[in-house]
């Protein structure tokens, strides 16, 4: 059904999170003992309710925890086999991890096109190369092209989500951390966005780690899933069968 | 009518100098969320450096370049030694840090280059020019034109270069900027360097007016009402705020002054700012948050 299980045997895994613990302000424990893996070319879902620790886990991986005055106090995160402890977020982005934050976080006062360009600066591309990347994103999200000069803050929620993903893709990532893409969007838009994610994965080989509360749509598109509760992984398995069993039958996978 | 226009124009032209000082604040405030109290000290430092170089016989353009380089190096040091260690701290912490910084810079400037008043000659004749009936100071005109030129350069930088777009991205959403790999530390270095150069231009124009001396660093206090009126987050606001303060000061001194015995200029800007705080606390052009989910 997918290549996830085979990838686990591949020589270098894309992402391996081992038993991490994240502490806010030196006191509040947000994540305690999360381990997960993302193989090359996989789509992995991170499921759980509000406050389960999904966002914190993603921020630990992208290095953004430190911007929230938090830190990974235990465990290890390896990206392409290299420990990422102490690596700055911009350096992680250069290595191929890009984080699409919960709530989109587009640059509201910049135009759609400026938002996209800002994602491309990272690799310091030539002018022509940047234009090519821009056209590639517009091909994925034609709607963004029609509004390229519009201030991003004035576009709809769905457009902002597409922009946030498009901006992230401009960095040419190997792994996209996608936090709650369905938040506040109409079901049809959510479906459209997940459809594009699946296509990007299939055609460009970009891997995704998607945090979601919306189990239904996440499980339909992910190959593998982890379930978080109170900052711990309480279940994991093949998205199609095991996880649905977990939720329906209460059986730990 | 002629008197009114003359007073108004004189005020507007003087206001561009306020704008120039305020722009330095806006740049840093937007990019790093810090109200940089040291902007005045940076201005003094820049002007003193320039004057000292000129006294050594360094030609004008070279002195300008060298001072810019000095300000850029200063920005690197400030970013590394003050901002980076205090990243993610509360605004008041950062504000206190810049307060301390302003004393360090002032002390350093005076220690290295002396505390006496230095005359600064930019080679602009301060002769009155007549447009019809209206008399305008040539120096004010040149100063205003310089300010306008600087604003145009900044606008081009912000809208048409990668660094400019990155700067605006950081100003909009620091976290998102981090997430797509923008190097925050480098952006801060650039912003402080640019603010230093803006401070240099402002320092030269102010310095030519009133001599280069310690009190130059007090223009910070004059920039405050300008920022309150124009808004802390908008360069356009800083410009308009400066013009309003300049014009209002001049007009008030000329028309209200005689009624209450004069001496209005020192406080009128603050009075105006207070009114703005009542009716429009974000300032005229303060960031209107765009929110649409």
TrEMBL record, chain A:
PROSITE patterns associated with the record: ABC_TRANSPORTER_2 (PS50893)
Domain of life of the organism encoding this protein: Bacteria
GO molecular-function terms, A-Z: ATP binding; ATP hydrolysis activity; branched-chain amino acid transmembrane transporter activity
CDD domains in alphabetical order: ABC_TM1139_LivF_branched
Pfam families in the record: ABC_tran (PF00005)
Iron-sulfur found in the keyword field: no
Protein name: Branched-chain amino acid transport system ATP-binding protein
UniProtKB/TrEMBL annotation, chain B:
Localisation per UniProt entry: Cell inner membrane
GO annotation, biological process: amino acid transport
InterPro entries xrefs: ABC_transp_permease (IPR001851), BCAA_transport_permease (IPR052157)
Ranges annotated as spanning the membrane: 7-28, 34-53, 60-78, 90-109, 139-158, 187-207, 219-248, 254-279
Keywords linked to the UniProt accession: Amino-acid transport, Cell membrane, Membrane, Transmembrane, Transmembrane helix, Transport
Protein topology in the membrane: Multi-pass membrane protein
Gene Ontology cellular component list: plasma membrane
Main location as per UniProt: membrane
Family matches, as Pfam families: BPD_transp_2
UniProt GO molecular function: transmembrane transporter activity
Protein family according to the UniProt entry: Belongs to the binding-protein-dependent transport system permease family. LivHM subfamily.
Name of the protein this chain belongs to: Branched-chain amino acid transport system permease protein
